[in-house]
Amino acid sequence: MVGRGGLMKKFILLGATQGMGRALARRMVGRGDHVFLLGIGPDELARSAADLTQRGGGTTPVQVAICDLEAPETFETALDAAYAALGTVDGIVVTAGMFGTQEQLEADPEFCRRMLTVNFAHTVMFCEAARKRLLTHGGGTLCAFSSVAGDRGRKPVVLYGASKAGLSAYLEALDHRYHAAGLRTVCVKPGFVRTPMTEGLKPPPFAGEPDGVARDVLRAIDRAKPVVYTPRIWALVMTIIRTLPRLIMRKVGF
Ligand SMILES: NC(=O)c1ccc[n+]([C@@H]2O[C@H](COP(=O)([O-])OP(=O)(O)OC[C@H]3O[C@@H](n4cnc5c(N)ncnc54)[C@H](OP(=O)(O)O)[C@@H]3O)[C@@H](O)[C@H]2O)c1
After folding, report:
1. Contact 62, 56 (CB under 8 A)
2. pTM here?
3. What residue ranges line ligand 1, CB within 6 angstroms?
4. pLDDT digits (tens, 9 = 90+) for 52-77
């Protein structure tokens, strides 16, 4: 089968059982790509695999393996299973992540520690394992979901934003270090997107939908774009926010 951007591609997806990851997986199989799902819930993985198999035409069953960002000992066995099933791999995408409001995270230090560990330390460790595999096999794309929340230190997202700032910095540096060796990094910076993660939160202006994000991200992966803001209006918004002096940032509630 031939995908829109050329030949069919093979992707490993961590965290594609709902939200933006699920939308991305659906777009991939819809154009003929093969995907292998990594995630935490066996039931959710099985349900997603059945859905994607059917959307892909039913000829290539989508396979799965357990991989938990709270349990780094699962990373290598999960990647082993994915490589054994796919043979060659064009890209590895991490959409898995945790969120808590600033109030929730300040009130619960253990929850805060878990969020910081999952979103930063363990995502980076998973990306390290992933980029080693990709480089060993001649290169490929490593795509991870950061956030606009990591671009500036802001009052409403002190802790979550810090976890994403660290991830964005890691991905930028990884791009510099391994681009010549064949690694393509894609750092996705969504604005507010309506997913299970943001359920119950009041959507701000420019709130996006998972499928629109998936379209932007797939295009960025195909074109090896190192940074993608999505919905695209956030590129303009963050260009302005990044230039605001600290004095103004301190005064505004944003
Ligand atoms: N939604 C937004 O407005 C927004 C904005 C900026 C950035 N982001 C970032 O974009 C990414 C995707 O967000 P989303 O809104 O699509 O989230 P979501 O709907 O909550 O989906 C998150 C996915 O991560 C998986 N996951 C959670 N904890 C995990 C763990 N410990 N190990 C492995 N997988 C785990 C979930 O699996 P289960 O289904 O099994 O729980 C689910 O598949 C996240 O990194 C998020 O921080 C989101």
Report:
1. yes
2. 0.97
3. 15, 17-21, 39-41, 44, 68-70, 95-99, 118, 145, 147, 190, 192-193, 195-198
4. 999 999 999 999 999 999 999 999 99
